[in-house]
Amino acid sequence: MTRTKPPDWEARHACLYYALSGQYLLARAGIEATLVTGQVSFAPDTPRRHRICPHAWLETPDYLIDYAILPRRGEVAVIPQRWVAHDLRDVHPGSTAVLALPRPRDPDHLRYLARHRARFARILRESAGSE
To answer: Are 69 and 78 in contact (CB under 8 A)?
Structure first.
């Protein structure tokens, strides 16, 4: 049985670990994806609006890749960038699927991400050594 996260990692960081895993797997396939943290709102202009904050996701020039529904439905959301707004003023009724508001990259936050990335890399190295 494979664990989706090491037992000592807090569940509240699951989106970060899923995004790090996705970034690693995409890189192995030659696809560069940027890890982004901040807030996302699905269906931002509708009564069904669903906001997640804080959150982590991946972006490529063509897609926003989100792992929020992976634990519940076993799916990864891959959303074309043309359906993504990065500013509230860019939300267009009927055509914006996601409002993705990145968090500013302050030094404390970058250290926080680096710490988790290092922890993730260590787990990968240890698991590769045990195979």
So the answer is: no
Identify the DSSP state of 74: S
**Cα–Cα distances in angstroms (integers) from residue 27 to residues 30, 66, 78, 123, in the given order:** 5, 16, 16, 17
What sign has the CA pseudo-torsion 41, 84, 78, 44? positive
CA 58, 31, 119, 100: dihedral to nearest 10 degrees?
-10
The dihedral built from the CA positions of residue 74, 36, 125 and 114, taken in this order, carries a sign that is negative
Digit-by-digit pLDDT tens for the chain (131 residues) are: 334 454 554 555 688 889 999 999 999 999 999 999 999 999 999 999 989 888 999 999 999 999 888 777 888 999 999 999 999 999 999 899 999 999 988 898 888 889 888 988 888 888 877 66
Give this prediction's pTM: 0.82
Burial of residue 109 (number of CB atoms within 10 Å: 0-12, 13-18, 19+): middle
Cis status, amide bond into 54, omega within 30 of 0 = yes
* Eight-state DSSP code of residue 87: S
